[in-house]
Amino acid sequence: MTATRSETAPTHHRVTIGSATRDLPVVDVGGVSVALLNLLGDTDLVEAAAEALEAAMPAGIEAFVTPEVKAVPLAHALSRRTGVPYVVIRKTEKPYMVDAIARTVTSITTGEPQDLVLDGGDVPRLRGRRVAIVDDVVSTGGTLHGLIDLLEHVGAEVATTMVVFTEGEPRDDVVALGHLPLYPAAAADGGPEGG
User: Fold this and answer.
1) Cβ atoms within 10 A of the Cβ of 21, count?
2) Which residues contact 2 (CB under 8 A, 6 or more apart)?
3) What is the pLDDT of residues 74-123, one digit of tens each?
4) What is the DSSP string of 41-93?
5) Cα dihedral sign, 106-100-61-46
6) Taking the model in full, what pTM does it have?
7) How far does the chain reach from its first CA to its final CA, in angstroms?
8) Strand partners, 87
9) How far is CA 39 from CA 16, 91, 142, 148, 164, in A?
10) Side-chain-facing half-sphere of 139: CA atoms under 13 Å
11) Secondary structure element (H or E) that encloses residue 152, with its range
12) Separation CA 21–CA 169 (nearest Å)
């Protein structure tokens, strides 16, 4: 799926975290348009988000868990700041994984089913530990619910979820630094993709 800009949404949405301000492009992801947060390669924004989330982190967190890909730099920055290790949940099973555990979810940005895969070798790093899920954005909660199910299955205690932004409907079940609106997509209005 190729993201395009909706004709009914603004072209950008401005966000500020600490001293980092960004104009996020608003793109159509099929049925809805989103302000696209991409932490990959944006060191200043990642560091600002890590600093703010560290201040909001509950005590006693023993591991961070993050889905690949865009939130990995954030989990790494939080790990460096706090000394808490992190585990990456992959989106495909790799040949080197032993006794991998998977869940299938649907994310708003992909619109397609995708896997969340935990390498069995990482289970001892999570079992019996208080963990914090770290992600860039939570919207419908599909990925979040899949992560929680996977972590509880291996005996981890999910103490909190920390994200840079919530999206769509405001949520009170996560620690977030801000909120992003959803916009109608061009396709929903019979625009260029709606035919």
Assistant:
1) 12
2) none
3) 999 999 999 999 999 998 888 888 888 888 877 655 566 788 999 999 99
4) T-HHHHHHHHHHHHHHPPTT--EEEEETTTTHHHHHHHHHHH---EEEEBSS-
5) negative
6) 0.86
7) 16
8) 65
9) 13, 18, 20, 23, 10
10) 19
11) helix 142-153
12) 23
